[in-house]
Amino acid sequence: MSIFDASPKTSVKLLVGRQYELLDVVRSVIEHRITVVLGPRRIGKTSLVKVALSVLSGNERLEGLRLKARFIPIYVDMWSIIAITRSSRHFFEYLDNIVLRALEEYDKGVAEDYRKHTRMIKESIVKEGGIDAIARVSGRKGIMYRYSSEAARCLDELNTVLAKHGRKAVLAIDEAQELGTLKPFSPTAWLAHIHDNLTQIHVLLSGSYVGLLKRVLHPRQRDPLYGRDINRIRVGKLDPSSLLTILLKGLAERGIQPSSEFSETLMRIVGLLIDAELAQHIPLSSRALHESRDRVQAIWRSLVELHNKARRLSSTTPFKSIPQEILNTMLEYLMQFIILIETPLLHSLLVYYAANLIMEIGFNLNTFSLMLPEERIEQIKPFIDFLANPGAKALAILSLFTLSGSPSLVISLAKKLPNNFTEEDLLRIGLQVLDESYRAVCDEVNRFIESYSKKPEIITTILYSLYTSPRTWSSIAQILTQQGIDKKSVNENLRTLVELGYIAKYKEGVNTYYYITDPLLFYALKEKCIKTKT
Length: 534
Ligand SMILES: Nc1ncnc2c1ncn2[C@@H]1O[C@H](COP(=O)(O)OP(=O)(O)OP(=O)(O)O)[C@@H](O)[C@H]1O
Ligand SMILES: [Mg+2]
Known about the structure:
Rossmann fold; 8% strand; binds adenosine-5'-triphosphate
């Protein structure tokens, strides 16, 4: 399989980056009854899930993980089902087939038993005249009677057989939000049933927050899943260095040896990202988050340790006699700590600046400068110089792509660049890729807006208000309260947008700033394909 393959990756070897997320998903499936993997479109969710299944099934090993028991992987792609049918009866028949196929591949003994079991049930139903007949006798036309009962019970049967053989299975349902479109069907009740009764089956859901997953993740008291063991994992952007690896690997596969200028440009971008401590610390991906969380914790521990040491020393000797070396180390840790906390600001600056250069949308550097302390302006100056040079647009394209967090965007770019490409090619093809890809984001945002019954215009107002520059919470709230929206709704909507990964926030002084994180969303807003209330 090549890096260019548009289908999801299936093996650990092919997955670039994502080690932490992978370990998270695998561990979560082992430890929890239901795991939900959430993330924006085209970010690599399916790849992550498929590779996790490969590890859980024992096909591949993962460093740092000891798998006590192998899981039988059952993978269901809801899109391939709803492409054909939205009938829950057909869904269960399909599921029954997938289960059987997986069992045959991973455990012949279980497969044989499963077949026996399901056949037995069929016979007993035929003998009793079947559930349809019962429905007819009782004279009720309830929803449940229209199921093909033997297929609808396939997981119950699977659970019995697995228990008998002392085995477990992982049921992975991709694009799980589509479960909500099956009729007649209650996905949350079904999941609650699996959770409570089918203990040999662990569930791994992936897909978009919109629709079903919201009710799975935040069940209200009266929802079937309330109080259940559900663990969520967010798949964020892929980190810049993994994206650059993909870009270079992709070009190498095509036999393209990037020119020395291009390599230099790449090095400069990486260098700049690293210089500003962006690559390691900005919360671009959960990997970066992991790293920064670990680092924050490590730094914090060292600080406490040093502090204690200093206190011990100062109790016996005057404070000023604390060795300079300890004070220096403390200061250095403190600085790092501060940098870790503030870097989202630099990230937002880079995204907005690059988006501005490429898409010529209004960008107000003063908004940024006003927010920045003197020394920060010094720190970001290299970015600004960098983006102001003649090849700036091409460089900005590369920055945007590496900050997009989307492997598929970078793959499309690497696929289309001509041999011996120039900076103009980079700009032209880059814009073309953005132009081809932004519709997925439009669809997703619009679908979200549609499904969001309470005042969807709040969402569009927020997004359009953030188009030209980041904004403080109070300035967003001001716009919305003028439209009669209460503050509670403002907060709810902002939280949801952050959760979806469209926007992010950072604190600067007493203010909380919100900003757009996704280059495709800039493009979508520029093209005005995000619906506004008409
Ligand atoms: N970590 C990775 N390393 C290399 N390639 C990747 C990685 N993650 C994803 N890809 C590639 O990116 C593309 C999109 O990945 P994938 O289909 O897994 O994303 P997705 O989030 O499931 O997308 P969708 O929202 O369309 O379902 C595929 O070509 C896949 O091979
Ligand atoms: Mg997918």
